[in-house]
Automatic annotation (TrEMBL):
SUPFAM superfamilies given in the database record: alpha/beta-Hydrolases
Entry-linked Pfam families: COesterase (PF00135)
EC supergroup of this enzyme: hydrolase
Protein name: Carboxylic ester hydrolase
EC identifiers of the protein: 3.1.1.-
The keyword Signal belongs to this UniProt entry's keyword annotation: yes
Cleaved signal peptide residues: 1-21
Species this protein is from: Vibrio aerogenes CECT 7868
The family this protein is said to belong to: Belongs to the type-B carboxylesterase/lipase family.
GO molecular function (one): hydrolase activity
Length: 519
């Protein structure tokens, strides 16, 4: 049986008010609980947010006008215009239309303005550095309001956090004639431009922006780092478990034809705009199943999602790493890494790790056009057939792409720090391990969030929370990670675990197997 799994994270799963800003505090009754609010003046108008424990949160603040209606559908984002009165940003609005995680053919979210969330101290005497977070979700889901991404700990440590919603699926990442490609990436650029223009009103320093993300969000960070027009929008980047999966224009056109066939229409902007969002969501999910046919889709069948960034000769003029090699700003500092057992997230919770066969690993090796003998190396330290498959899949999808991005940027002249997340989660009968996503709550210090507990258990090591969160704060504030920069000879890496330590070239034998693979 050929096992297919999702290779891009489907489980993804803030601002300071400067002393000179005009703000007012008031009290309001919400669910019989007294809640404090604050109002900030911006160039667009006044914004009211919620205050709790000295931290202000401005929820679902619009940065672009609703791109899901009228002539704006499937087009580049349009900047939001100034408003009159006070914008109520005390409640989260629905995320963009996307498949529900529990019942994937059910619509989650709703059309509306593109929004971001801001967390910041209520008052600050100086401009603070800013982290802009791009959530992941395989380019078909995203949720900037996920509790795992709540940035209170960052704010307490002097960092403003902005989390960004953007278009996904058909609206964000499918080629449609007459529409710009990579609309989800264009949304993110618009959000970064909004931050440059307005974050100072919340106490943030627009010259001290760190762009960060995990999984598909990390790939977006990598793409944005290779686009010339983004120069100056951020000073540092953090990439957690980044794949490098893109599609050619021809491949995306084929995806569009598949969507059109499922919907019974020609996939034009006009026709697609008439389809209810619930039907579009079903088409997104079904197309993801259609591409699992290896005989028809080749290596795309190993990807788990059909909706990927497009090599459009505009934003992406070549491969992701090719774009970085030619266009990355060498002055941008880089923190990048992966978890040691990424793909166990997709194999352990559903029990599939016990259902794979050695033929699954051999088939992937064959499709990669790699030497079948590499299986011998993977059998070392991986006692079961499922462990071998999980390790191979982890390396193909996340770990070796991370290495390739890091080396590309080192060659380009960037200062790069690499980490390896090694802590084995005891979740799912002590089998989840150092899986995809497990590092995120440690970086955010959100290990107590309900979803975090599902994947971490009840007693994650406090030392690891301290080590990772402190590193992220240090990097955002100073551009220094706290260990040796990554170099081609030494390859010094921070291994995050219950007892973290700097190590030299971990996993060298595996790395060398992939050294010539054309990511």
């Amino acid at each position: 049986m050929k096992l297919k799994v999702l290779l891009i994270s489907l489980i993804s799963l803030c601002c300071t008010v400067p002393a000179q800003s005009a703000t007012t505090n008031m009290k309001t009754e919400v669910s019989k609980k007294e809640v404090s609010t604050t109002v900030v003046n911006t160039a667009l108008g006044q914004v009211k947010g919620v205050v709790e424990n000295g931290i202000a949160e401005f929820r679902s603040v619009p940065y672009a006008v609703n791109p899901f209606e009228g002539t704006r559908r499937f087009q580049a984002p349009e900047k939001v215009q100034p408003w009159h009165g006070v914008l109520d940003a005390t409640r989260y609005k629905a995320p963009v239309p996307q498949p529900d995680r529990g019942k994937e053919t059910v619509l989650l979210g709703a059309p509306g303005d593109l929004t971001l969330n801001i967390l910041a101290p209520v008052k600050t005497a100086k401009k603070l550095p800013v982290m802009v977070w791009i959530p992941g979700g395989a380019f078909i889901r995203e949720n900037a309001s996920d509790a795992m991404y709540r940035g209170e700990s960052f704010v307490r440590d002097g960092v403003i956090v902005v989390t960004v919603n953007y278009r996904v699926g058909i609206d964000g990442f499918m080629h449609i004639p007459g529409a710009p490609d990579n609309r989800g990436i264009l949304d993110q650029i618009a959000a970064l431009e909004w931050v440059q223009s307005h974050i100072a009103s919340f106490g943030g320093d627009p010259e001290q922006v760190t762009l960060a993300g995990q999984s598909a969000g990390a790939e977006c960070v990598a793409i944005l780092s290779g686009i010339p027009r983004t120069k100056g929008l951020f000073r540092r980047v953090i990439m957690q478990s980044s794949p490098v999966q893109t599609v050619t224009l021809a491949q995306s056109e084929r995806v569009a034809q598949t969507v059109g066939k499922l919907l019974g229409i020609k996939p034009t902007t006009e026709n697609l705009a008439r389809v209810p969002f619930a039907e579009l969501v079903k088409a997104v999910v079904q197309t993801g199943k259609e591409i699992k046919d290896r005989s028809q889709w080749g290596m795309m069948s190993w990807g788990g999602t059909a909706f990927l960034p497009v090599i459009d000769q505009s934003l992406l003029t070549g491969t992701l790493t090719g774009n970085l090699a030619h266009h990355a700003d060498p002055s941008v500092s880089v923190l990048i890494g992966s978890t040691e057992q990424e793909s166990r997230l997709y194999l352990v919770p559903n029990g599939q790790i016990d259902k794979v066969h050695m033929s699954d690993s051999l088939q992937l090796i064959h499709d990669l056009n790699m030497d079948a003998d590499i299986i011998k190396t993977y059998k070392k330290g991986n006692p079961t057939v499922g462990d071998v498959y999980a390790a191979l899949l982890s390396d193909y999808t996340f770990r070796m792409p991370t290495q390739h991005i890091a080396q590309t940027l080192v060659n380009h002249g960037n200062a790069v720090w690499v980490y390896d997340f090694a802590w084995r989660s005891p979740a799912f009968n002590n089998r989840l391990g150092a899986a995809h996503l497990v590092d995120v709550p440690f970086a955010f210090d959100t290990t107590e969030a309900p979803k975090s507990k599902v994947f971490l258990g009840d007693h994650p090591p406090q030392s690891l929370i301290r080590d990772m969160h402190t590193t992220w704060v240090r990097f955002i504030q100073t551009g220094q990670a706290g260990w040796s920069v990554y170099q081609s000879q030494e390859r010094r890496v921070m291994r995050f675990d219950g007892q973290s330590a700097e190590v030299k070239d971990p996993g060298k034998a595996i790395r060398l197997l992939w050294e010539s693979y054309p990511f």
